[in-house]
């Protein structure tokens, strides 16, 4: 998850030390959240219980449904950004000096948009 308000926090280190960060990549996210974490946080902050639709009838065309089922296992093997994704994210976060916005804070900050 990345809050667009945090974009500068990822750019600042490279601007301050361009030679050091030359040819390096940043994994620009505050954290890798699971669907369960996202749903629980949303429910907690908004006070409205939601559940992910992980099973049941699909509105996808049958061929796409088959392809999606085959792809689900890939997240287990390759994670968000490949096999080194978590290590890459950890390295990126070590480079930053400013605190990033958490998913909970993001939902809290934008809560009025979600209310009826």
TrEMBL record:
Domain called NmrA-like: residue spans: 1-106
Pfam families: NmrA (PF05368)
Name listed for the protein in its UniProt record: NmrA-like domain-containing protein
């Amino acid at each position: 998850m990345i809050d667009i308000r945090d974009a500068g926090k990822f750019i600042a280190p490279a601007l301050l030390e361009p030679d050091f960060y030359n040819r390096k990549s940043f994994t620009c996210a505050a954290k890798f959240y699971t669907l369960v974490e996202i749903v629980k946080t949303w429910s907690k902050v908004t006070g409205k219980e939601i559940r992910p639709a992980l099973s049941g009838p699909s509105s996808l065309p049958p061929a796409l449904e088959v392809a999606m089922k085959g792809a689900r296992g890939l997240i287990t093997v390759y994670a968000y950004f490949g096999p080194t994704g978590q290590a890459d994210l950890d390295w990126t976060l070590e480079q930053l000096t400013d605190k990033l916005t958490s998913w909970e804070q993001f939902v809290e900050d934008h809560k009025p948009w979600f209310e009826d």
